[in-house]
């Protein structure tokens, strides 16, 4: 692990991701989720179907991928855009180590700003009835890992990573992933929901993807995206390397 994780790269990435402006963006949706949970609980009382709708329809389908976009692309895309990544690449740090370290930081930030508020919202909505809060928290954490890898990869392959990430998150995951039957199989949201379905009691939480398939796809996509991001970073050169 020590050869894959570099503390200085991690510190610089955390500083970039948790600056005042980006931290405000990261906190907006979690705060909105908690406010919605408090308001709904106050107005309607504890209800499993309502909790499922908010945790699945807003937290997992919208909040988690959008936070993944901010954290995943923000971990590397700004450095590539402004050229400062050249100074990082000039240091005696292996490029796979840079990518892996940034992925770990992006995962940590995404989990903190998505899984933690999802659990709090679940507790507020129905007190973890049918283990719904726990199930959606695990799903949000698993989805955070995959989204971080996907959006980190986007940050290395395009200068329009945020736009591409938003299109993916809002169009593919939120629209096609919910409404188009064939697309659900290729949706991170549905893979994560498969984990939630196994953990939750009752039949409120459902997924279109079987659990073994979901685990394989989550693992494969995360590993493949991380590997290819490392390969793309290797293709970047600094002055004097050519």
In the predicted model, the low-confidence regions spanning at least 5 consecutive residues are none
Mean pLDDT: 90
| Run of helices and strands | HHHHHHHHHHH
> Radius of gyration from the CA trace?
18 Å
Helix vs. strand class: mainly alpha
Q: What is the general shape?
A: globular
According to DSSP, the number of beta strands is 0
Pfam families: ABC2_membrane_2
Protein name: ABC transporter permease subunit
Keywords: Membrane, Transmembrane, Transmembrane helix
Transmembrane segments: 23-42, 54-76, 97-121, 133-154, 161-181, 209-229
Which SSEs are present, and which pair or pack?
Layout: H1 7-17, H2 20-44, H3 48-74, H4 77-82, H5 85-89, H6 95-126, H7 132-157, H8 161-179, H9 181-184, H10 188-199, H11 211-235
Give a description of the structure:
With 242 residues, the chain is mainly alpha-helical. Helix 3 packs antiparallel against helix 6. The protein is globular, with a radius of gyration of 18 Å. The two termini are 30 Å apart. It comes from Streptomyces pactum.
């Amino acid at each position: 692990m020590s050869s894959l994780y570099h503390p200085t790269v991690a510190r610089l990435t955390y500083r970039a991701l948790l600056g005042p402006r980006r931290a405000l963006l990261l906190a907006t949706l979690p705060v909105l989720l908690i406010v919605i949970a408090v308001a709904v609980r106050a107005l309607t009382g504890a209800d499993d179907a309502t909790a499922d709708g908010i945790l699945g329809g807003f937290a997992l389908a919208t909040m988690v991928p959008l936070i993944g976009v901010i954290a995943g692309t923000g971990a590397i895309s700004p450095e590539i855009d402004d050229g400062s990544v050249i100074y990082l690449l000039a240091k005696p740090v292996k490029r796979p180590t840079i990518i892996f370290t940034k992925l770990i930081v992006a995962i940590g930030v995404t989990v903190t700003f998505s899984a933690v508020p999802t659990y709090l919202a679940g507790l507020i909505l129905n007190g973890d009835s049918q283990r719904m809060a726990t199930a959606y928290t695990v799903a949000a954490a698993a989805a955070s890992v995959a989204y971080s890898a996907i959006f980190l990869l986007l940050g290395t392959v395009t200068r329009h990573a945020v736009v591409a990430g938003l299109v993916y998150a809002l169009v593919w995951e939120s629209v096609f992933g919910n409404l188009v039957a064939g697309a659900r199989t290729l949706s991170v949201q549905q893979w994560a929901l498969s984990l939630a379905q196994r953990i939750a009691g009752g039949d409120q939480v459902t997924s279109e993807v079987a659990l073994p398939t979901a685990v394989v796809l989550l693992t494969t996509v995360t590993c493949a995206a991380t590997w290819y991001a490392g390969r793309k970073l290797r293709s970047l050169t600094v002055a004097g390397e050519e």
